[in-house]
Each structure stands twice: as C-alpha cells, then as structure tokens.
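Researcher: I'm preparing a figure for a lab meeting and need a structural model of a single chain. I don't have an experimental structure, so a prediction will have to do for now. The sequence is pasted below. Please return the structure as tokens so I can convert it later.
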Amino acid sequence: MTIRVVLADDQALVRAGFRVLLETEDGFEVCGEAGDGAGAVALAKEHHPDIVVMDVRMPGVDGLEATRRITSDPELVDTKVLVLTTFDVDSYVYEALRAGAGGFLLKDTEPVDLLRALRVIAEGEALLAPTVTRRLIAEFVNRPENRRVDTSAVREVTEREREVLALVAGGLSNDEIAAYLVISKATARTHVSRIMTKVGARDRAQLVVLAYESGLVSPGSAG
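Model: Understood. Here is the structure written out token by token.
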C-alpha cells in the first residue's frame, strides 16, 4: 500500500527535505505541499491523502486549527494528521491530540523514526514522541481548567471495553491487549473498534485523551 502524504510547513527547505526523504522511500507518495494551515486544509480536501504532516506554528491558520478543520470534516474521515514541530511544549502536545491528531513528533526526530511514525499512523495506531510521555498528557488533562469536553460517552461502554480502553491509554497495541487479556487478536481489534464507534473517536489517539478526561485513567496509572 502506498501512503499518500501532504506536507504542511512554512519553511520551504523543511518541506523539500521531507519530500526527498519520502520520495526516495518505497511506499510513500507526496501529493502536495502547503506553507500554511489554510493551504494544508485545501490540499487535504483536494487530494484526500492518508496523512498530513502538519507543523504547529504557521502564518494565518496555524497547524492546530488546520488539524481541527481536517479531523472535523466528514469527507476527510480517512485522513490522519501527524503534528511535527520544534516546540516540545505540554500544551501543544495535548491540544494537538485533542484536535484529532494521530500523533506528535519533534523535528529533530531521526528520518527512520519519521517513516515509522507515518506507517504507524496510517495503520490507525496512536503515536507520541519518545520524549513526550503519556504521563505528561495525563497531568495536563487532569488540571481542572483543561476539562472541556463531554466524556459521558464512556458510560456506554461495557466493563470489558473499559478495561480495553484503559490498556489503549497505557499504550498497548491490539496484539499486546490480546496477550494481556488472553483473547484473540481479532477480538481485541473488535473491542477497540466498538469503543471508537461508541465514543465517537476517530483514532486511538483520541481514545487516549478520552480515557484521561473521563477519569478512567489517572496520572501514573498507565504508560
């Protein structure tokens, strides 16, 4: 499968470097470049890429707002966003995931790790930079001033699904969840898919945020 990518960064040299990296690697296709968030949204609507690699700080519409626009568009439900920035700041991480980003990496990430990240996100997994731990997200979410969403949907999941959701928040893959609960891999995938449907999450990253915001997982209890 070829992973189709849109690159969004206000620095032309950065975009050029990413393009060369991706176009020399089998399985990737760059279908557009944008220098700001508005351009990224327009390209996403035009090309329906698998992933938009999104910088945070761009002129006009920034990367976080562009991410919100892409992830809230029902016609772009299959388009994932990887936020890539030089700024290792708590609020950027959390707001990127809240906005619907499938992952967050710093620009000093090694090329091989960026390629891996794109493949992970294309497969529907959540991904965080090694230096950006889930504990950081947990602590930020659990500040009272940051609880802004309705988490009542968690009440709709079964006890088994709540257990699976907590494991997703702990960073376990479907295969790891299957091994931990002694169930088949297919059953683990089904549980995760049903949870996402019930709570209206578009990917695993949003499940992680929801698990913390609902209080199902508390700081230090997962990941």
